[in-house]
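Running this now, will post back.
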Amino acid sequence: LARAYEQNRQAFEKDKGYASDQPVLFVFVTLGMPEQTLRLLIDQASRTQAIMVLRGLENASIRKTAAHVQQLIGQKQVEWLIDPQAFDRFGVNQAPTFVLVKALAPSNDCASGSCIAPNAFASIAGDVSIDYALEAIERRAPRFSPEAQVFLKRIRG
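Update: finished.
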């Protein structure tokens, strides 16, 4: 978890914007979600290279959180962040929420440090799969279709 956080920290640093020239897909979750749902999202996140985001620690313990996450992911390669401010940055108030961010999304100052411009991301919430969420984003915000297709191609092989 700590290693994944460090690798992705730049994405949320003030005045840096996104260092990646590729779109980013965040999946906001809680460890209190049904295990079957988490396992499906983890499987799809590993195939799409999406980043799983938690608001905080389980029982205020990094060890318990890491053990729970490791038990869920097994041998899959999935990036995780623990970033409560990300929930504010993207207006996330339920889990799961899927946030698709355009490449090199501009950021500006806000109460949570650095905010992504509202026209640089699209989101959808609900107990759905990643592919369903991406298809819904495409329907609701067609200008995000190229970004959604990047992840849909990965998930569909």
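Residues 31 and 58 are 7 Å apart (CA to CA). More later if anyone needs it.
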